[in-house]
Amino acid sequence: MKTLNKFTPKNNWEGKTKSSKGSISRRSFLGKSFAIGAGTFGGGLLLSQRTSAFSPGTLHPGDAALLRFPAALEILEADFWIQYNELGGIQDGEVSGGFGIPTYTKALTALDSDMPQYIHDNTDDEITHHQFLNAYLISKGADPADLDSFRTLMGSTATGVNTTLIGKRLTNLTKLQLDTSWWTRYRDDSHNPDLDPSFVFPQAVPSLAVKHHTAIPRTDTDLKSKNFIQAMANTAGFHFPTIEQGGNSLYPSLAQRASDVEVLRILISIGPTETMHFQTWADKAGNAPPLTAVDPVTGVSVTFPNLNSPPFGGEEFQTNLIMPEPCPFLSESLPIVSIIRPTETKGIANGALTFLTNMGLFTDQSMAFFTYMKTLADDADAAVRSCI
User: Which region among 8-12, 100-104, 256-260, 375-379 has the lowest average model confidence (pLDDT)?
Assistant: First the structure.
């Protein structure tokens, strides 16, 4: 059985922790990593019993799977947010690494002057999410999520990145294909993907769903054109809410399968923070300057339209309508209501994994990576709510 150890720094994936006078910093416990063995891929969990959060005990295998899968996703999320923070966020004692690229940061602030701070805070949040989930799993004698062996992707080599992490990324931000249909899904008061899964919601930025686009400067060569720099920043601006709306749905969907009330509490406590992220970024994406740019390396074109003008416009595209419109829920016979959508629980983990894979976030990852992630998703989808 694994137990919590006396934490010691493991690496510099996520920077240094921040402390304050006379108090424990927000991550003085979570911010130190665990001694995780190479043999943690898979099950081998013990039978379940109810125990308090930090006492030795075990988890029902299904509940452990419901926490291990989002822990892995939060590790992946932290990985790409760290890349964004290195180039366009705030580097400090809480989220360190990188030196920023002034021209890229300036392009991000065209969406909102506070973008560097928001990027920093979102990065910090995701780091704490996976560190807490893994710490909780270990405290219960369950295997944590461990993706360190898959840190093999190149990432950006532009001046300003954390050079010690070049070639050690988990995610790829340079070949994205974004589904921006969430934009109209949350503005449509007549359709809910849970009730009408075949309905096609229009894309906010159709060209982002075609071919591959980079959201960060790959090299210093990408910094020669002001227009292309803004296109990269706009792509990032739409990538942020595209990712966060996924977590916005994932946690309440997984929570419906939890057996232990404490596991339920964890899932419904982390999930709403993803909703906070989503609404923040949905608001900022609406400020992306309209433009058309051509990738100087791939020749791929991207167009960011004025969503308030024809052929867009109207309530489905209006940029300041960031509150979720009411829509049908549970049954067409019931009144419409403002909700998170989708929240269907069947196949949610594999659906989330497919969504991220189709996005291009894992381009160039190994087959071993996909096998590991598929195992975690299958285990989470197999979890069944029971009385324990």
Answer: 8-12
